Amino acid sequence: MDTDLQQAAGLLRTARRVVVFTGAGISAESGVPTFRDDLTGLWSRFNAEHLATPEAFHADPDLVWGWYEWRRSRVRHAEPNPGHLAVTAITRRVPGAVVVTQNVDDLHERAGSPEVTHLHGSLFAPRCVGDGAHPATFPDATQNVAHDESPSGEPADGRRIPPPLCVSCGALVRPGVVWFGEELPGSALTTAAESAAASDLFLTVGTSGMVYPAAEIPRIAVRAGAAVIQVNPQPTQLDLFCTINLLGTAAHVLPAIVA
Ligand code: BV8
User: Are 152 and 228 within one domain?
Assistant: First the structure.
């Protein structure tokens, strides 16, 4: 095992207040596209920053809902990878370890991590756009995605699917995610910031560190004097803040430092 990995494993063994902070990269090896990867990134294919906005949903609800249904289908067909499982191992080994994710998939939960803090919401928590913003109950349109998918398992050019109507008030149902220009859930942001400020070890995994205010969280840990370990195969904006920078993928590196 190389010295950086050994040092990271040593820090994890002695740490008492651990935060694991994840981004889209931890789900990449489960086959869930990230936002910015050149090869598979949603940015390059669906202009995610444009579609993930209230304006896009208002302008074309069928396209935006269809995009989220496609993404939900991708996640439903995905399995947690060894990176997610290693995070769960950390939550079992370090009492009080906190998992904060920017991701909207449920792979941390399906890997067995308890109490995952979602800064940007979830693909699986749709809600109505009405004032009540109550959780929506509606037939799951994802079930019919399979027969429309091309052999590659992906729709040819995106699919328009009319969003369902809320059974409680008849308003449109929207994805339960935080769009660009929308405020993050206050409780999630507070949990993330307070955990980072109290941490002695902060693991940042698979994030470009470009989306705010989430990108402030690692910086809070640095200011608090925590040791920061980054796991990412590419350079990021967080490189300057890291105690140890492990250039590698989540599914390979995390199991090695948790072993
Ligand atoms: C807000 C849900 C205000 C939707 C998402 C300050 C400066 C600049 C801009 C801003 C700022 N403050 C606010 C902004 C604007 C904006 C913003 O940050 N824009 C960015 C583009 C600059 N922020 C907002 O709009 C936020 N809202 O500030 O509101 C406000 C305040 C009060 C009242 C009203 C309003 C809301 C931001 C949330 C947006 N929603 N997701 C959806 O998913 O559809 S963000 C989206 O990006 C995902 O959640 C994703 O997780 C997140 C962050 O990206 P990453 O996770 O880092 O993913 P990325 O693709 O970038 O990188 C992947 C990384 O993984 C790469 O580094 C890659 O190398 C690595 N990787 C690849 N494979 C692997 C790997 N790593 C490990 N293993 C591998 N195998």
Answer: no
